[in-house]
């Protein structure tokens, strides 16, 4: 009899292959949940930081050298925590692996997490350790002006030994998301554990500085979600012999997205050359680029979710999966394809958490069995909710709102020439 890892690898291989002429299908996929009952009830695993965000919001433009009137708020945050919370509010039950201290910040984070009904077994709570805290100062338009992060607890105490305790969760997961706050040795350990089990790994770069931690694990990573600056930093560390042009979106505002894409192509191919199969490149108000291998598909068989157990998720899947759209590949000989997804107009309150909700929404779609394009469109809708919320993750999502926004996004997706 085949071993469990071998069966899983065979299953994943089946899921990633489909006819090469189209990935972004123009019709709904059948519900094949019962075809792979081995994966029912499995939870996606999210590994990384749980952080208390201290957010300073001025009532006028902040000026150096003096105080500025405004509001200071305490908000539950952290890249991994935000992604997991977003996934939970879209109907999944992710399993988070993280660390906090036995202090006021840690108590606030743990109290909220328990209130969601999500598992807490993966959260390491330590006496004498300071819970990760990030202090953000915003501008009047909701943009981050400056931020200082104190995340030593993640760097020091989120160890390979703690990850090892949850090997079964990782082996059984449909996807593992790791954020770059993890210390390099823990990051490599988690990625390798998932890869051996045939579980796709999603790498969230966190920041330009920490994005370089992809270097030793790039061959173990399936998907990653950098902004344009993180993409350049990742390409530079992965291909040090090459030279990549730095890009400032503010300086080239108004540049056609096709031209921006051409500027980023060398860095994109640098990551593809290292084995990464899906790139979600965020561009702020310009939307995002989705780039992936032509034979990549997270099919319905790879679902870990029984859609009948969560009414919200079941409705979301059925409604989004029934949206018809018609976007073929741009003509070209490359084995990769690329698309531009527009941003949805929003009333900006805070941009903190938008990127995390983009990833969380995309992962929910993938795990539920939606194709890649529909999954990313769900992520864009979730990001819009974050932008319009004071919290990093909106208090709730409405299926009707998400559905309208997914339709709008998919109607405006443009194929790009690689």
From TrEMBL:
One of its GO terms (molecular function) is metal ion binding. Residues 45-292, 339-390 form the Carbohydrate kinase PfkB domain. It comes from the Eukaryota. Pfam families: PfkB. Keywords: Kinase, Metal-binding, Transferase. InterPro entries: Carboh/pur_kinase_PfkB_CS (IPR002173), PfkB_dom (IPR011611), Ribo/fructo_kinase (IPR002139), Ribokinase-like (IPR029056). GO terms for cellular component: cytoplasm. Transmembrane segments: none annotated. The keyword Transferase applies. The keyword Ribosomal protein does not apply. Belongs to the carbohydrate kinase PfkB family. This is Pseudouridine kinase.
